TrEMBL record:
PANTHER family registered for this protein in UniProt: PHOSPHATE ACETYLTRANSFERASE
Provenance organism: Paralimibaculum aggregatum
Name the record gives this protein: Bifunctional enoyl-CoA hydratase/phosphate acetyltransferase
Keywords, comma-separated and alphabetical: Acyltransferase, Transferase
Source organism, top-level taxon: Bacteria
InterPro entries: HotDog_dom_sf, Phos_Acetyltrans/Butyryltrans, PTA_PTB
Domain (Phosphate acetyl/butaryl transferase) ranges: 230-451
Coiled-coil stretches: none
Length: 472
């Protein structure tokens, strides 16, 4: 877009210009960073006045700053500099409001000074948010500029996890056998989820170590059932037994090796087998992506064969449905997007796609082989000439092996600032698998994912939150 200014000589009284701008939650975070004003009144989802409701009030000077966009871009346009600006704040704008910003020339003065009436109104009802007067130095020379391609900004919020935690909130806490929460990180994650009413923890392990971990956290665990176990193997066996007794509807890994927990789950007599392979699913909240991104398998199956990959895909689809993705789009990853007989993963991908087409994998759209770029980027898919409902839109990525999945998940975490929730699927109940490096957000999200999945299986799943531009 070419922007052309009006010089002082070209301007006339009555000249008018306007633009519209949607106020988003991200705008409020960016302004808080830039200004240093961290008032909770202006930060989405915080209650800044104690009335029990978040306000998300747009800071008045953020609203006022929109006037400079009209002055600097349109009228008078490039080359304009402020002399002064007055504001009368008549009402408040909030995240989600669409605003009309307008200026009108009211007078010209010596020294290239121009006076303009300035207004900001809410589009939906015409309500005046602010008015005032700007005095600016109009451009001296005629200028034309291409619209500036600014560097992108990415606000590192995890809106998908926030939404899942809110959606799981109204559910009854899911009774969860927490195996060996014998150090502060693992115990803290379970207690945090209990405080958010996502789980009702049954703490299984060495009572002395669990109490010491609670003391280190400054937490009172007297309200939670504590079940003694002498060893981690015994704790895992007791957790599985609680599921069979109907006392637990989920398992949660504490401070023990994953193999020790899964050994009890996989026992042929008394375990929690279902006929499907156990598979791990990362639910990743990647800032900037329009939906959660699921990755499987990155933690259990090292080099899965085709039969195992069928279960990996089906388990991932089932979990995607539980967290609110209506018809999950599954991209089967390989190094290429065409079948290459020398690349086994491309052959497996083609077979899995055909199996889904014939109804042997249900609940989602499956396509492959797809390379990473054309699985998640629509332009990349179009460049390669790939015509697919999945290519460029994948919400589930099925990787060739554990190495690639683990690297992909950690790259997203440490480079793209994603948070990852981890759940093991394929057993009679979901297994919450958290890492010592997980933060509170990831731990809460893992519990929320498990609660939503169990609620879907039991027919108790609440409707997804409606998408709103204000929330994003």
């Amino acid at each position: 877009m070419i922007r052309e200014n009006k010089t002082h000589d070209e301007l006339a009284v009555g000249d008018h210009a306007e633009l519209t701008r949607l106020c988003t939650a991200d705008d409020l975070y960016v302004f808080a960073h830039a200004s240093g004003n961290h008032s909770p009144l202006h930060l989405p989802e915080l209650d800044g006045d104690g009335d029990g409701q978040p306000e998300a009030v747009a800071p008045s000077l953020w609203v006022g700053s929109l006037i400079s966009a009209v002055l600097g871009n349109i009228l008078p346009g490039p080359g304009t500099l402020y002399h002064s600006q007055s504001f009368n704040f008549r009402d408040r704008a909030h995240a989600g409001d669409e605003l009309r910003v307008s200026v009108r020339v009211t007078g010209k003065e010596a020294g290239r000074l121009v006076r303009l009436d300035t207004r900001v109104e809410r589009v939906s009802d015409g309500r005046l948010i602010l008015d005032g007067e700007a005095r600016v130095f109009a451009p001296e020379r005629k200028l034309r500029f291409d619209d500036v391609d600014l560097p992108g900004l990415l606000v590192q919020r995890h809106v998908h996890f926030d939404r899942m935690v809110r959606r799981a909130g109204p559910l009854a806490p899911i009774p969860t056998a927490v195996v060996a929460p014998e150090e502060p990180n693992s115990l803290g994650g379970a207690l945090l989820a209990a405080e958010e009413t996502l789980i009702a923890p049954l703490l299984i392990g060495d009572p002395a170590r669990i109490r010491a971990a609670a003391e280190a956290l400054g937490k009172d665990i007297s309200g939670h059932e504590l079940i003694a176990a002498r060893t981690h193997a015994e704790a895992a066996a007791l957790a599985v037994a609680l599921v069979h007794e109907g006392r637990a509807r989920a398992l949660m890994k504490g401070h023990l090796h994953t193999d020790e927990l899964l050994a009890a789950v996989l026992r042929r007599d008394g375990g929690l087998r279902t006929g499907r392979r156990l598979t791990h699913v990362f639910v990743m909240d990647v800032p900037g992506l329009p939906s959660p991104l699921l990755i499987s398998d990155a933690a259990i199956n090292i080099a899965p064969d085709l039969e195992t990959k069928v279960d990996i895909v089906q388990n991932a689809i089932d979990l995607a449905l539980s967290i609110g993705i209506d018809e999950p789009k599954v991209g089967i990853l390989s190094a290429v997007e065409t079948v290459n007989l020398k690349i086994p993963s491309s052959i497996d991908a083609a077979i899995l796609s055909k199996m889904a087409e014939r109804g042997q994998i249900r609940g989602g759209l499956v396509d492959g082989p797809l390379a990473m770029d054309n699985a998640i980027d629509l332009d990349a898919a179009r460049t390669k000439g790939i015509k697919s409902l999945v290519a460029g839109r994948a919400e589930v990525l099925v990787v060739p092996n554990l190495d690639s999945g683990n690297m992909l998940a950690k790259e997203l975490t440490f480079i793209a600032h994603a948070e990852g929730a981890g759940v093991v699927m394929g057993a009679q109940v979901p297994i919450i698998l958290t890492s010592r490096s997980d933060g509170d957000e990831a731990r809460l999200a893992s519990c929320a994912v498990a609660a939503l999945h169990q609620a879907r299986l039991s027919g108790e799943l609440p409707a997804p939150e409606p998408e709103t531009r204000a929330a994003e």
